[in-house]
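Re: the multi-chain job from yesterday

Posting the exact lines I submitted so nobody has to dig through the queue logs.
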Amino acid sequence: MQYRVDFFLGIFISLGLSSLGPIFQYLIFSQTRGYPDWNIKQIVLYQGVLLLWFGIKDMLFGEIRSYIETMIKNGEFDMILLKPYPPIGLILSNGFYFQGIGPIIAGLIIIIFSVRSMFLHISFISIILFLLFFLIGIILYMALTIFYCTITIMLVYMNRLGEIIDKFLRFTNYPVEIFMPFLRIIFIVFFPIAVWVYLPTQALLNRVEIYSFISIIGSIIVFTLSIIMWNFTLKKYTSAGG
Amino acid sequence: MNENIIKITNITKIFKVPEKTKEGLLSSIKLLFNRKYKIIKAVDDITLNIKKGEIRGLIGPNGAGKSTLIKMISGILYPSSGSIDVMGFTPWLHRESYVKKIGVLLGQKTQLFWDLPAIDTFSLNKQLYKIPDNKFKFNLEYFKEILQLGDVIYKPVRNLSLGERIKCELVCSMLHEPQLVYLDEPTIGLDVFARDAIRKLIKQINKDKNITFILTTHDLNDIENLCRNVTIINKGKIVYDDSIEKLKTYFSYKKIIELKFYKEIKEKNLTNFNVINYTPLTAVLEIDLYLNNLQLEINKIINTLPVKDINIDSISIEEVIKQIYKN
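And the result, structure tokens for all chains:
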């Protein structure tokens, strides 16, 4: 019974909290000069994609940080290494957090509402690009999670690292146009967090530029680096005593 | 003669650990800027062979290097130097294919999902180890029968007794038919009946399936009941590697004489003997047969002391092992 109450209450609260982001953005937008190249309806669409992204990210990887920290501190990571499967695969598959469904539902509702209110023509190519950027976004976030797991294995206690990552993720709350050119290049090329929300939204708005595809290469390079670092760290793993 | 399933050659594992010599907050803050490390040889140039179908005891005091050795044999840790060959695999290099052939039971850690019935973890392992349906069903029935599990596997793990949980852990580590199983303190915390049952089961499974077991424990009854050979590790080195029978005769030239007196005696009355323990009404003496004749010593005891009861025994295996640890 306790589990069921916790589950439904969690979904209810996450749905409620999901609506706060778009309202906050609406207030900022309506009380300021707005964002360059974006009108209010486009920003609402952006917020829908943002919610969808955060929901998917939480649903797939929401529990990983606490999971890996507990594993490493208690020496239970040994049990993962005794399974006939890549350990990082097993860790990533343990991050499932069903309460991410709240933002996903809220995000989808806002996206559908925005697309209809703007009379956007969503072509087959737009959908493919939207899904492609989302998939690449998942791979990039996976890389970030692998870096987190790697650092946790090396240093064991990393309470504030999660906070740093979360703060960094806030850059995705806004279209890259609001940042200075230097940051824009970083967010599209070197650490292309634009693939999480900005580029999928651009795909729905039929505004994808050719240079946007560099972010795919950037994401794959970051993911490859994370795997190399992970494998290197596994060799240095010392386990816990006992 | 059975072939060697494990061949360990000159294996060494060195850890670099931070050293804290002073207590207190100030010392901890200083360490943030000036950290000192010490080098610890957890396993020091160990060479060891284990035969297929054996139940090998691996014992040693806390911090002796047993767990580090097991972790290297099971592929969890990379060694600093040396080689290990288990069934043709180098464990840390061929980890994914190698761990399919081994099973591990860690008495103090669980591999079962705490909030789910054990059968769900078994099903997950079925997928992970790619166990065919018929083999999975056959093995599950086999273990259910010999472990008398009944419907235990359908209850959430958090509701099981420790004995029931250990039985489920045992099933979990062997459903995929490993050729080699590591048992790390499998009877820890169990009552005498549950301990006895687990030992019988390990013996039965070893006999039925010719599975090799490596057993690490601090309970010497486990070792005496299950193992023909034992390896003792201390300070990262092997200090004994032979049969239990030979270990029992390790101090066979020493006898322990337990005495009860019908009246109180003073300790000075025992000055001619090597006294291990004394109370006014009891005493424990040790006799070295290289230096003394047992018959003459017994006569001397009976003639000079008010003996009500006498018991002559060899040195217990526990005492032998204590001596080996100390030396």
